[in-house]
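Teaching assistant here, posting this on the class forum so everyone can see the example we discussed in section. The complex has two components, and the goal was to see what a joint structure prediction looks like when all of them are supplied at once.
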Amino acid sequence: MKPASLSFDEMIDADGSVRAAYRGFCGWFEEQDPRWLHRQCAEAERFFRTTGITFNVYGDDAGEERLIPFDMIPRVITAGEWRRVSRGIEQRVRALNAFLHDIYHRQEIVRAGRLPERLLRDNPAYLPEMAGFTPPGGVYTHIVGIDLVRTGPDEFMVLEDNARTPSGVSYMLENRETMMAMFPELFTRVAVRPVSDYPQRLARSLAACAPPDPSGSGRPVLAVLTPGLYNSAYFEHAFIADQMGAELVEGSDLRVVDGRIAMRTTCGYQPIDVLYRRVDDEFLDPLTFNPGSMLGVHGMMDVYRAGRITLANAPGTGIADDKAIYSFMPEIVEFYTGEKPLLANVPTWRCAEPEALAYVLDHLKELVVKEVHGSGGYGMLVGPASSRAELKAFEAKLRARPENYIAQPTLALSTVPILARSGLAPRHVDLRPFVLVSPGGIDITPGGLTRVALKKGSLIVNSSQGGGTKDSWVLEE
Amino acid sequence: MLGRSANGIVWMTRYLERAENTARLLEAGFRMALTRGINEAQAEWRSVLETIGQDEAYSARFDDYNGQQVCNFILRDRDNPGSVLAMMENARANARGVRTALTRAVWEATNESWMTLTRLLARPVRESNLGEVLVSVRRQATLVRGAMDGTMLRNEIFNFARIGCFLERADNTARILDVKYYVLLPSVAWVGSSLDNVQWESVLRSVAGERAYRWLNAGPIEPRGIAEFLILDGRFPRSLAFCYAKLRSNMACLAREYGHESPAHELLRDAGAGLHQTGIDRIIEAGLHEFIGQFIKTNQRIADAIAADYRFVE
């Protein structure tokens, strides 16, 4: 197989030979009958359907559930690569938490002139309700899903920090389960670091962030808050709650009882210590935020600010996902850790700045332009893949509200092969490792979720835009 | 567990049970239609619709009780919120809503049931495949029940699941009796006629009781015996007495687990006593129809009390 022309292929080097990371896998792969492999993959799809590992796509018919395509060729990362990457992640996550604490307290970074104040002041993701308040344990981002892209042997870059509510961890776990069920002998030949204890680690990490006076039992009560059955990630919410042994609650199950958030059980209301909420900030509390919200709890923020419940992640962390803030991450990391960032940012033009805007408008066809507050691949422009008309339309939007956009070069994302009908075919990938933060430290699950653009040449890996996933392996030392 | 989850699990099992019982009712109707003339067949289909409370909705749309039409209406009509397909969708939606209360095996069995029946019922059902479809409905319900039995912890969740199942089953058996009670009333004129034999057998068939009845009674099929069997025989798993014995034991488990009884326990005890301290002669004497009507109402009251006691909704 020939490597894709410009991108770094993680399996095959420039001479066409298999890289060290993939030798174990390829040795096994070459012994298999391709027809059998295809049959196993079809079987895997059936398995996903019965398991109900589906997601709903917004804008589609209500309630329609779709599968995220799974590709059986794993994404492999060596122990050494992972060591370097995880050091960078840890540094970045520390900086993120320090940054969030700072912007909701003294704003030293603004005073020092390293971050423009307007990025906080005019930002809907900055919650004034959080000012002066420190969450239990001092943790803001209990769960982070940093998106990494790779462009060369040692070049990993952060594409997004996802400090708000990263999703996809259920796919990381199910992909591994599926691989082990389909190809058990593969795992006896290649030593892969396990990921299956993530739910226990999550439960432990969340429990360590409980408010100082838990329910007396000494074991904090955890619950997962979901917007409900029709949310695109409902499967994941249920999966995580189930794996942690925690109740999966909806807004209608909760109310404030004796100054605590409590859930309606068959025996009355039971207080919750830690709520892993998969509901956006603005829906958490109709009294404080969106008055029309049916998803949250009246008075939640009062209980929170009284320190009687831990919300994970803390309200107001979404500001760290702002793409204008993102563009300052190298400064942010340096400011709070006193170190050079170990993981690079993707070069970013802030369209709010006139010279940057001029450059972006001149080079629109080569760039990726994103909304500052957007996520999930919605509302973005991929210059090279867009028609003249699309570019023109986007240009108008850009001129009208330049501060609403940032632009990045179209990266030559690394590729990993997928198993196509005709055999192996390189496709672009990214990687979302999952990071847990508690007063006890930062815990990074080896690997994460590899998303893959299934269309040839496509750079968009989002599941809402036709991306698939792969099992992600970190090899044992 | 959450009150909402208890509600979800009760309804999940109720819908599964109802789907299964509806399939059985259709099987009995189908058999009757095969062996009888067209008028009797139409009457039988109509009584099937009455039993599940859909005669009104059906007759608003259709002029006659053509078997295939009735079956498609009951099994898969998109505009019929009580169709078997809708029940399976409801069962699955409830299961999905209480996903964390179920083992993986139970969830998968429920999800697969829904997938299988959605596929089977994607096209109109014909006489040639009606049997296959009905068997499949029953089989899917059996798979879910088996998964529950084999994998679920015997805790509150399991007890609520069983409570849903037996509340529904008692209701369904009672409704069959309610519509067919007149067939079971002693009547000098009817005794011995072939029509009665078929009708009686059909009643038994619709609760999967024809074989059990023969083995237990070892005598002729006769109305008093059938009524007794369906109402009072604690060995027959679809009898009212059996369902209530199970309900009492599942409710007792809840009381043990929660450390106290609730008003629903009291209601249930009274209803159980009503079943045990009566003989079939007393029931028939006082009015079989009245007895069944009363039973259905009480069953509903118990279901409501359980929902209130265990905070199913706010």
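For the discussion questions: The longest strand of chain A covers residues 423-432. Chain A touches chain B at residues 49-52, 229, 234-235, 238-239, 241-242, 246-250, 252-253, 263-268 (CB under 8 Å). Think about how each of these relates to the inputs above.
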